[in-house]
Specification:
mainly alpha, 63% helix, 0% strand
Length: 139
């Protein structure tokens, strides 16, 4: 239960940040986007993209609040059982990355994003994947 609430809080914060960007917020936006060695962004998300990520993260928030029985709603057990593996798989894949700009195995490391990704973003994804796996196994 505690791990589910922890995950829901992490996802809530991440969802709120993405909604902030979706509604035009700029703080931190440039730092979380991968760039090439020349400093040119290789990813240019639109506001709609930020909103969709925010909605996904909000859905994860609700899912883990349901898992913690913090809120109740009758969901089929299969959704909980199999759906619970979506988060750890997604975040483990994000931590691994696409081998050029994102993840632990990226080749472009000496950019601002590359350094932040190595120190914070990818480790956070691993922590989320591990905690989500523990929720699936223990619960």
């Amino acid at each position: 239960m505690v791990l589910s609430i922890l995950l829901s809080l992490i996802f809530l914060v991440l969802a709120l940040v993405h909604f902030y960007w979706a509604f035009g917020g700029k703080l931190g936006f440039a730092k979380v986007l991968p760039t090439n060695e020349s400093g040119v962004r290789v990813l240019n998300p639109k506001k709609l993209d930020c909103a969709l990520v925010g909605l996904s993260l909000a859905a994860f928030t609700v899912f883990y609040l349901l898992r913690a029985r913090f809120i109740t709603y009758d969901i089929p057990e299969r959704v909980v059982q199999y759906g619970g593996w979506v988060v750890p798989i997604l975040f483990l894949l994000r931590a691994i990355g696409e081998f050029k700009y994102v993840g632990f195995f990226k080749s472009v490391r000496n950019t601002n994003f590359g350094q932040l990704d190595t120190k914070f973003f990818s480790p956070l994804c691993v922590v989320i994947a591990i905690v989500a796996t523990l929720v699936n196994v223990v619960d």
